[in-house]
Amino acid sequence: MSAVAITPSSIIRLVDTFYGRVRTDSVLGPVFEAKLAGKWQEHMPRMYAFWTKVLLGTGEFEGNVFGKHMALSGIDKEHFVRWLTLFKLTAIEVFGAEDAKEAILVAERIASSLQLGFFGEI
Predict the structure, then answer these.
(1) What is the domain count for the chain?
(2) In a designed cystine with 27, which of 10, 16, 82, 96 is the match (CB 3.0 to 4.6 A)?
């Protein structure tokens, strides 16, 4: 795959590729499937809207991301490490190393915030 600029269509490619990997990952897959089994089709447009909002500042995403994630059980630090690893890999693959930097910074901030919520520390 060749790198592309961050656009609504490349964000869809990022999200589809990333969550495809998440779903088959031995660490993350079970956590996501426990919550989203049978609901992936309705959840993906929310993910497109979320990432479009945070990366481009456009779109209509509304929701309590922090609250939704705090309701999950069985989360440990390994989940965050794996999530960030897969996200970084995918972002660099889709956007290229230079253009992926902003997306990776956003993902790191999200992970840090959620880790603070779960564990009280990063």
Answers:
(1) 1
(2) 82
Cα dihedral: 59, 87, 30, 69 (round 10):
-50
Residues in the chain: 122
H, E, C per residue of the chain: CCCCCCCHHHHHHHHHHHHHHHHHCCCCHHHHHHHHCCCHHHHHHHHHHHHHHHHHCCCCCCCCHHHHHHCCCCCCHHHHHHHHHHHHHHHHHHHCHHHHHHHHHHHHHHHHHHHHHHHCCC
Whole domain around residue 57: which residue ranges?
Answer: 8-119
pLDDT tens by residue, 51-105: 999 999 987 777 666 566 656 667 888 888 899 999 999 999 999 999 999 999 9
Report the distance separating Cα 56 and Cα 28, nearest Å: 27
What does the pLDDT read at residue 96?
94
**Pairwise CA distance, residues 65 & 50, whole Å:** 9
Per-residue model confidence (pLDDT) at position 115: 79
Contact 122, 45 (CB under 8 A): no
Domain assignment present for residue 56? The answer is: yes
pTM of the model: 0.86
